[in-house]
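It is worth pausing here to work through a concrete case rather than discussing structure prediction in the abstract. The textbook approach is simple: state the sequence, then state the predicted structure, then interpret. We follow exactly that order.
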Amino acid sequence: MKIEGKVAVVTGAASGLGYASACALAGAGASIVAIDLDAGRMARLRDAVPADRLLIHAASVADAQSVAAAIDAAVARFGAVHIAVNCAGVADAAKTVSKGEPFPLATWDKVIAVNLTGTFNVIRLAAARMVGNTPGEDGERGVIVNTSSGAAWQGQMGQAAYSASKAGVMGLTLPVARDLAPHGIRVVSIAPGLFDTAMVAGMPENVSRAIIDRMVLFPNRMGRADEFAALVRTIVENAYFNATTISLDAGARMSSR
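Step two, the predicted structure:
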């Protein structure tokens, strides 16, 4: 899909992978509908995206009505939705049993609600709009890019909820792609490894260095958000990417902790 002139909905757009993806797609000429709970941090997108191509909407991806309102606002403002990039996520951790206490079910529910249900919520609402688009080359009407994780199959201690949510994202990729193929909509997920994002920003340098040295093959560093965003752009532009999860992890293999 040619990105210039298209409309992209990006969740988790206030920081990290979502912010970088929004900037990359805007740089290629797309209009951006930025969704995140943190409206204040999303404001910095105004320095990267022209005002006439930016719509900021504060919402939780797990809230069906809020996301529906954001999608409706996107269509009202820009006329269509062609691209959806799901980067919203949380990584609350807990062991199954810790100090004799069971995993807090509220933590489980939150992680699944945002990472898995929230991703599918955006998929279903964006796809419902994409089916009405005028088909382009090969009959293509839309592209959906989701964020899974290497934790989907290499989850560490304390990551039961996070790993389950990201495995769920990987698991829905093929059936949703099959559902939407007749409409000319592609669905691809990215499974990033260790990336330098807000989730690891508070980690001491010696701790992060030890993790990198122990887990990352080459290059021996954490991934950069712009590298994730570059893959998002490639997926959108290359029509032969579909129904798969792509590892973006420098060959990293997670240890148990």
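Step three, interpretation. Helices lie at 16-27, 39-42, 64-78, 105-130, 151-154, 160-180, 205-215, 225-237. Residues 116 and 168 are 6 Å apart (CA to CA).
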